Amino acid sequence: MPALFLGHGSPMNAIEDNPFRRGWAQAAAELPRPRAILCVSAHWETRGLGVTGSEQPPTIHDFYGFPQALFDVRYPAPGAPWLAERAAALLAPRAVAVDPERGLDHGAWAVLRAMYPKADVPIVQLSLDRNRSAAEHYALGRALRPLRDEGVLIVGSGDIVHNLRAADFRKPDAPDWAVRFNDEAKRLIAAHDHQPLIDYATLGDDALWSINSAEHYLPLLYVLAQQDAGDAVSLFNDAVVAAISMTSIRIG
Hints:
globular, 252 residues, two-stranded parallel sheet, 6-stranded mixed beta sheet
């Protein structure tokens, strides 16, 4: 099973008919049907590892200031407690807390709603443990690699470039530093050169401006960690809008 990193951008992409949403749908159409999905989203940050263990995770509307139509969205995909247990076993001896009540945040459902509109693929979310370094996040992703062989689609949902403080959506042209870093990241990914992306602080000011608080960047490392030597890499939704990259990546 391939793995995907999805640049998710604004929550409005969940309900607008635009090229990004159509790109997510097309990506799903080109994949084998997954047995289940393990999603690492920018929008579940914890201290310590967690996975969702609910049989029927609720839809979390973790944003404000958007139209009521977005708050009305429900994405009733089933959970997969068996996958939560399998992920915890693969990540051992690291402790993983199974949360029986946590639902799906918009980093998950906004993209998966476009990909699987029938909400019929079970989903588990893995949290971003902010106690861990970028190298440790990459190692966690590598530990989850067997899931691909078990029919599980691993999805990272975030943005390679994400700096809301620098974004001016009245002027959608991207700053030069955002374009430069997005291009550099793509070059390194195509070359299967992951170490500089793990040690992103060594990539200079463009990286530091682009990655900023890092929660949108770290899901990328989980997906890069899935790449085996023979895996092809392809891009879609490749654009930078204001200071947010929508660039999405398929591995395998």
